[in-house]
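Working notes for the structural subgroup meeting. M.R. asked for a predicted model of this chain before we commit to crystallization trials. I am recording the input and output together here so anyone reviewing the notebook later can reproduce the run.

Input as submitted:
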Amino acid sequence: MVNHKTEFPVRIAHVLGKMNGAGVEATVMNYYRHIDKTKIQFDFIVDNDSTLIPYDEIQALGGRVYIVPPYQQLFKYNQELIAIFKNNNYKIVHSHINALSVFPMKAAKKAGVPIRIAHSHSTSAPGEIKKNIVKNILRPFSRAYPTHYCSCSKGAGEWLFGKNIRHIKHLNVVNNGIEINKFLFDKHEREILRNELGLTDKFVIGHTGRLCFQKNQEFLINLLSGILNDIPNAVLLLIGNGQEQERLIKLAVALDVSEHIIFLGNKTDVHRYYNAMDVFAFPSRYEGFGVSAIEAQASGMPVILSNNVPVEACLTERCVVLSIDKGVTPWIDSIVQLKENVDRTFDMNFQDYDISVNAEALNEYYFRISRESVIII
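Returned structure, recorded in token form:
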């Protein structure tokens, strides 16, 4: 039993894998901006093939960035992680790379890090055979090296760590918080954006997310093809980059709907673009949580989620959950009905996903476990 005397700020190593400006790394950065940095500091360990690392912001906030090889170069990856952990004498390492956290958790244990947090941000990957093989090989070892467990939803935690995780070890569900006020509907901003994008007389179906198999944008393009019979002025607005973009463009051309789709790419001010949308569609094949759904609901618009998105993400009466297995017709019917409800001003309670509230809770979590006595095995 080792007792640790805490010195503030507690510096925590966050293992993120690739930083590409979206998803998990965006969530961690959002927490970093709002955490009490007099008590807690973040360092970031990221892969050398990352495409968007906010060096200037991290350094301005007092953090540090360490570049390592991707896990595929396993020996070198482990050696560099161990060296970083030892050289900085970290007391806490927090890994966000789901089933792959086995590797940094093992390295942290070997380096003598007393508090090792594994964080699940995802679930299974139906249809992605290679990913599932890796995940299923590593999942049995997910509890071998961590001392603490976090997840973005109960389902994501139970998927990686097992359904009895709540009884064996405490699972800390960390909500994917957002700046609620930033996402509230702004009529003036809507007019500006719709003018800029040529959408003044259009019905806009919106979506934000990486252009990838998981997010299932091909479903939206097929949906658009069908809905134009009922809503001829429909436009699909896609925010995000990804490896599927070229294939999605070809699909749009094949279905003769390319003139009704706008690919906006990544946006650092994504909150502004929710104002331009009329309905938000999120047909994910799998999802650890789905923070975009919370953002869209905070903007007051109707939202349709696939039933693969955790139920925790459906917060308002304007949120509809549908299966993607039954095809696009139920989605089209729902959007046609939702089209008549254009009021974006109604009372909402999003306190559970307010980043200021969530950052304070995470701050207290770190503060508490940094004082724990941990048995190093």
